[in-house]
Amino acid sequence: MSADRSTDRFHGRIQGGGRQCAFPRCYEAGEFRAPDPHGQAASGNGPGDYQYLCLDHIRAFNAGYNWFAGMTADEISMAQSPIYAWPSEARAFRANGNVDSPPKWADFKDPLDAISTRFRSRMPQERADGHFLSPEDRKALKTLGLGEDADRRALRSAYSAKVRAYHPDKNGGNRSHEKALQDVIAAYTHLKNQSAFA
């Protein structure tokens, strides 16, 4: 990129190409790229053909250009959808708009520690059996009083013991442990569906 282009007040100007404006009988330099109405249209195979216009003619082109021309109402609605440019679900490095969050997927691998160094304390941790535990998994295990390498049998045993300890029916109707019981049920419900405890 030349020094001139980086400070150019006209966004999109392409200098130094030696092209002439594509508008008939215009001899100005074609420094601005626009879709070529006579060329191949944009498709899944690429952006299509371009023409190069001078400043005056790119302004006229932009003023009269209708990207939605020829589309049905459904096609326009689809094109305006936020997922139009990337219609499949993508894994993101941001959660709830928080840029400083680690990746959320359990099978994340980072052999060069490019990302995990920054988020080491919050990254999913690998167990001895090769399964990963997210921070939520570790919190649930702590609620049940289990270590990170606990198996499904230990999970069920700890859950049963905690329910017996906290349930009002086992404590003469004492409801003071209701919150602890709810936490235990939530922790067990979360963990029993994780691959580490299948």
Number of domains: 3
Q: Which CATH architecture of the largest domain would you pick?
A: Orthogonal Bundle
Strand order of the largest sheet: 1-2
What pattern of helices and strands is seen along the backbone?
HEEHHEEHHH
| % residues in beta strands | 5-15%
SS element count, helices: 6
Biggest pleated-sheet summary: 2 strands, antiparallel
Features:
disordered N terminus; 3 domains; two-stranded antiparallel ribbon; mainly alpha; 198 residues
Give a topology summary.
Layout: H1 3-6, E1 32-35, E2 50-53, H2 55-64, H3 73-79, E3 125-126, E4 132-133, H4 135-143, H5 152-166, H6 178-192
Antiparallel strand pairs: 1-2, 3-4
In words, what does this structure look like?
- This protein is mainly α.
- The protein folds into three domains: 68 residues, no CATH class; 35 residues, no CATH class; 73 residues, Helix Hairpins.
- Helices cover 30% and strands 6% of the residues.
- It contains six helices and four strands.
